[in-house]
Amino acid sequence: MKIWRILLAVVGIGIGTYGISQLLTQVPRQTLVLVALWLIGALIIHDGLLSPAVVGVGAALRRYVPDRGRRYLQFGLIMAAMVTVIAVPMIYRARTQPPAKALLLQDFGINLTVLLAAIGGGTLIAYAIRVARDRSVPGRPPPNQAHE
């Protein structure tokens, strides 16, 4: 196990070094400044907004949602948040590029809605399967007494 960690660390450091060298040698200085500003903004948004929101939602879920259902709800919320974070810039920039860049010509609002519905549906199905399995096992204590 230790050798794999060392190997992965060496590969990661090598890839990171290569990426930084490419960034510094092939990207204009003005773009590097914009990338640095973007990274600082991303750090501020993550640490100042997203992390406290995740902690708050997690505390609320711990208080109001039973153990058995919480993991499924957390999974669904995390997946929905990741998809939304990716989709929002595309929704904002929709139809701002020429037709040659066809990616931004899609209707990302509808696509996001469909994807969020699929995530919600998949989460509900997974939870329903768990409930059905719990009910089918004889001698298993009720969910409010089981420690997971």
Question: Could you characterize what this model shows?
Answer:
The protein is mostly helical and 148 residues long. It has helices at 2-26, 29-64, 67-93, 108-136. It starts with a helix and ends in a 12-residue tail after the last helix. 1% of the residues are buried. The model has no long low-confidence stretch (mean pLDDT 86).
Structural topology:
Elements: H1 2-26, H2 29-64, H3 67-93, H4 108-136
Helix pairs in contact: 3-4
Can you describe this structure in just a few lines?
It is built from four helices and no strands. It is mainly alpha-helical and 148 residues long.
Helix content: over 70%
Indicate the proportion of strand residues: under 5%
Mean pLDDT: 86
Quantity of strands, as a count: 0
Please, how many helices?
4
Structural class: mainly alpha
Q: Please give the domain count.
A: 2
Order of helices and strands: HHHH
Distance between the termini: 27 Å
Major beta sheet, specifics? none
Shape: extended
Radius of gyration using CA atoms only: 22 Å
Low-confidence stretches: none
Which keywords apply here?
148 residues; mainly alpha; 2 domains; 4 helices
